[in-house]
Amino acid sequence: MGRVSTTVAGVAALASLFVPDVAAQSCPGVSGRYQPKMGSGYRASVLATGLRQPRHLVIDSAGNLLVAEGGSQNVRRIVLQENGDNVCAGSSSTLSGTSTNHGIALSADGNTLFTSTLANVIAYSYNPSTGAVGTGKQIVQGMSNTGTHPTRAIATSKFSPDTILVARGSNGNIDTSTTDKSSGRSMIKTFSISQGQQTAHQYNTGGEVLAWGLRNIVGLTEDPVYGGIWSVENQMDDVRLSGRDIHNNNPAERLSYHGALSGGPNGTATNRYKGLNYGYPSCVPAWDPQNVGLQNVVVGTLFKPDGVPNANDCATRMPGRLHFHAHTAPLDIKFNANATQAYIAFHGSWNRNPADGYRVMRVDFGPDGQPVHDVSSKTAQVPVMENGNIGGCPNNCFRPVGLAFDSKGRLYVSSDTSGEIYVIYGA
């Protein structure tokens, strides 16, 4: 028997935000704490406040919003209601017995809910209409770290529906043991869902390595049209080169491409991207080549900083597809329905002065399923939602974490530090 979610106090509804040339609208309820600055053609409103560190998000097949609520370690289900041109929160409930600190995903048929914790990936039967969940079963185990990076980004595939992707970060800023693939860290692996439901996979020894040499992947997704797998990475802190402190503007954060899983429109049995190494911990990508000060370095060029293991030729490692400002901390990426745009949540810096990030940005894609901008571009990001006063960050601003699109193309954004969910219209 499934366990019906336990209803708690209703979620606060939409609050108006001031956006140039767009009439402010709201739903009854508590206003949000901040008024974001919106990019051209976008408007936003606050759907929910008072959540406990909301992290990743997903929309179920009945149109409800599921939130990985890191502060409570549970999944919250928000029933959405139409209100004119806006969407409002009709009710809020906790899915009883669920456990997560960050990751959440649904199976291709929408009837299985997956969550991630520090150590495990857990599967629950799920009824989108009622919110009933079954008893959780661990399908991936053995992911605990003794150091930093406790999040485990997860994603499922509509083109390869028996596959779940699981990212595990490094054990510290410079995790030297990850030069060995058998460490089971700083990588993305794929696992069979059906096999895991029979006998749980062990992360280190089970599954298949899709990509490694990736310091800390906190968001990954599948392109809904071409089937490509994409990840966003948080790169190294406090980087020095030849004794010089270059950390303020280096290294770059990174968007990486990992090919299509078998079964996708571009998927083959021999994905040429499968198993590639992206350089960490020995090689990091440049954001400010002049500050790096080496010859033949452009944005995205991999170089060897101080204090890392001896590198094989960094030129032989797989580069990112696009790069972003240092320390802006991209935590999620989601595509619109026709895969012409990818939206990225930048949680914001702690290792930079002045602070940077704290925004949602857009990257445009072409008909080949790839970004329209070159790998070394510094102008690939289009502003969508930013803090009006970044000087108040990180404590007095919104910090985007998770993203999810609904069937009407509305983009939901979680802010963990402020406990809010925003809705962006025009995406």
From TrEMBL:
<feature type="domain" description="Pyrroloquinoline quinone-dependent pyranose dehydrogenase beta-propeller">
    <location>
        <begin position="36"/>
        <end position="425"/>
    </location>
</feature>
<dbReference type="Pfam" id="PF22807">
    <property type="entry name" value="TrAA12"/>
</dbReference>
<dbReference type="InterPro" id="IPR011041">
    <property type="entry name" value="Quinoprot_gluc/sorb_DH_b-prop"/>
</dbReference>
<keyword id="KW-0732">Signal</keyword>
<dbReference type="InterPro" id="IPR011042">
    <property type="entry name" value="6-blade_b-propeller_TolB-like"/>
</dbReference>
<protein>
    <submittedName>
        <fullName>Soluble quino protein glucose/sorbosone dehydrogenase</fullName>
    </submittedName>
</protein>
<dbReference type="InterPro" id="IPR054539">
    <property type="entry name" value="Beta-prop_PDH"/>
</dbReference>
<feature type="signal peptide">
    <location>
        <begin position="1"/>
        <end position="24"/>
    </location>
</feature>
